[in-house]
Amino acid sequence: MTKIVGENAPFGANSPFFHIIKEGLNGLVDGEDFYDLLAEDVVFEYVITVPGYPRRVEGRQKIIDLYSDYDDYITLRSADNLRVHRDPETSTVVLEYEVHGTSPVTGRPYDNRFVSVVTIEDSKVTHWRDYLDPIAVFDAQGWPQGGRS
To answer: Global pTM?
Structure first.
């Protein structure tokens, strides 16, 4: 196990996101931070996402690169409402959870719900399929210009 990012980074050991994911995958994965949970050749699919975001990303380093400026757009303060559904026969876990924070760009709150379908092999995440509420992103970022009040 290797720390890939600093403990206080958005996906580091102290991040709310890492804590909720680690809790949901407890006993199934090993890692010091979110990225360390991922296999080198992990595949991420973003099924429901926002315009301009990739639909598919292959490789841990590309995931690290994708999220490298995450804290420029979202500062997370907490994550909760975890629900875990495990299928041991397929090594698949479905995680339902919420994250809460603020957009440093607009100062608006960010509250989003996710469903992540995660496949695990050899104590590492090999596939991650993500569903989120794009309207929550739009509201936090003020898209379209002015957004909802």
So the answer is: 0.86
